[in-house]
Write a structure and sequence with these properties.
Helix content: under 10%
Distance between the termini: 51 Å
Strand content: 25-35%
Order of helices and strands: HEEEEEEEEEEEEEEEEEEEEEEEEE
CATH topology of the largest domain: Neuraminidase
Largest sheet: 4 strands, antiparallel
CATH class of the largest domain: Mainly Beta
Oligomer: single chain
Shape: globular
Structural class: mainly beta
Length: 303
């Protein structure tokens, strides 16, 4: 008796990594030759799954937010599981979708820096050197070329726990703790920092995503449900989040963003997705968290 397989045959594409945007892959089936698994993409609510642990601890780290779930970059942070911890780290680690690998260290350790860019072209912005309870801030900026960090021009006003996004040649950071909530915004052109138009309200413990002409600021203290969009010149109030978010992880684009976790008013795993107009609650983290980094897309993210 003839079978469908015998008539049509079977063809499943082999891939070393999963698609960076599984929204575009909906309806497709592929075999991941790295994890030795048959995978598929379907429409619907996302779910969280355990990934490989970082080699060292990174609490309040920076990440290359434009990198992908199968090619990520994490750097800096406190070198302990809680805040405050004994000190900060210079550690930098690459993620290949399965495991982390230590790569070239930052020149200067810090925690709660801004981060942007990709696994091979990232930027680490300001942060705190935190030592012995010090509230000092680090004004240094470092650029990552895929193998090592280089110091470049300092930020105009140092900050930590701030919103940041863009690339290592066109980046923005806004808000953050100086200490104390700030409304400032600074833009990076690959060489120098320039003052931009301020946020609508002073914030700290915030996060963000997007580009220097289409950015999104979200989750902060004390306005933990507010979000603002950036058009390359000024900030505009956007739809409020459904839940409080502070010291959360955020990533994506201005029209397809995700935010997860919070430490205010309590530690939660609340996760929301933004479609450019409104926020929608989606599957919570398996373990309530805060002070983590994030990267990727709304359909294939990593925290």
């Amino acid at each position: 008796m003839a079978t469908y397989k015998g008539i049509k045959g079977v063809k499943v594409e082999s891939k070393a990594t999963d698609p960076g945007d599984t929204t575009a892959a909906v309806g497709n089936v592929w075999y991941n030759t790295t994890s030795f698994a048959l995978k598929y993409a379907i429409a619907g609510a996302g779910t969280w799954a355990a990934g490989g642990d970082t080699i060292d601890q990174h609490h309040y780290p920076g990440t290359a937010k434009n990198s992908t779930q199968s090619a990520g970059l994490c750097f800096a942070g406190f070198d302990g599981p809680t805040y405050p911890s004994p000190g900060v780290t210079t550690g930098t680690e690459n993620y290949n979708g399965t495991a982390w690998t230590e790569v070239g260290n930052l020149l200067t350790g810090r925690a709660a820096p801004g981060g942007a860019g990709s696994q091979t072209a990232a930027i680490c912005i300001s942060g705190t050197p935190y030592s012995g309870g010090s509230a000092s801030r680090n004004s240094l900026t470092e650029i990552w070329n895929g193998s090592s960090w280089s110091e470049v021009n300092n930020v105009l006003t140092a900050s930590a726990w701030m919103c940041s996004f863009g690339t290592n040649t066109a980046a923005i950071f806004a808000g953050g703790s100086g200490p104390g909530a700030q409304d400032m915004c600074q833009t990076w052109d690959g060489t120098c920092w320039t003052e931009g138009n301020n946020l609508l309200v002073a914030t700290s413990n915030d996060t963000g995503c997007g580009t220097t002409t289409a950015g999104l600021h979200m989750g902060s203290s004390p306005v933990t449900k507010a979000s603002q969009t950036y058009d390359g010149n000024s900030w505009t109030e956007a739809s409020d989040l459904n839940s409080d978010h502070s010291n959360s992880a955020g990533w994506g684009t201005q029209t397809a963003a995700m935010i997860t976790g919070s430490d205010a008013p309590s530690t939660t795993g609340d996760t929301e997705i933004y479609d450019g107009t409104s926020w929608t609650e989606t599957t919570n983290l398996g373990t309530a968290s805060y002070g983590m980094g994030g990267l990727g897309t709304t359909s294939s993210g990593l925290k």
